[in-house]
User: Fold this.
Amino acid sequence: MQEAVALAHLRVAYEPADDDGDAIDLPALPASPPQLLRVPAAWWETPAVRSRVLAPVPEEARTARSFVRDLLTSWDLGGLVEDAELIITELVVNAVLHGVPRTARLASVGPSGVPPRPPVRLCVLRRGNEIMLAVTDPCADAPVPQSPDSSWECGRGLQIVGALSYIWGWSPIEGHGKAVWAVLQF
Assistant:
């Protein structure tokens, strides 16, 4: 796990003794392309899926990590916690920054005084020897892995997700955006 994260973030600057200022950039890990999995919108609401509504702010990644850690520990899957926490952090932050319109991040109540549909939700499903971690958001656009250059401090999240998961992808949720998910095997 640490190797995958290190490779996703790795940029090595090499300064030879003559100080000519050359830098050697190691290429970023190729992010596996996201898989498209069409599932009925109601699937994310089934009793088999454990879920938690999250506020549309990046700080909710902490809440998501805690939820996932507690759930996996209760299922005696503590060996997956470290990878799952990194994956869910990236999915939550991406959902908030790229999947929730700025106006929705600022609004807590709809115009009619009724709270709007939760813009971000964390979902966890255990099936056989797999755990699916998913985050839903209101944007229907597919996630796009970036190819950041060495000066970027961000943009490697989906590369981390791809490196740590067995498979990852996204599912459109008709009329409600999408779910971006990753599967861990045990």
The longest helix spans residues 81-99.
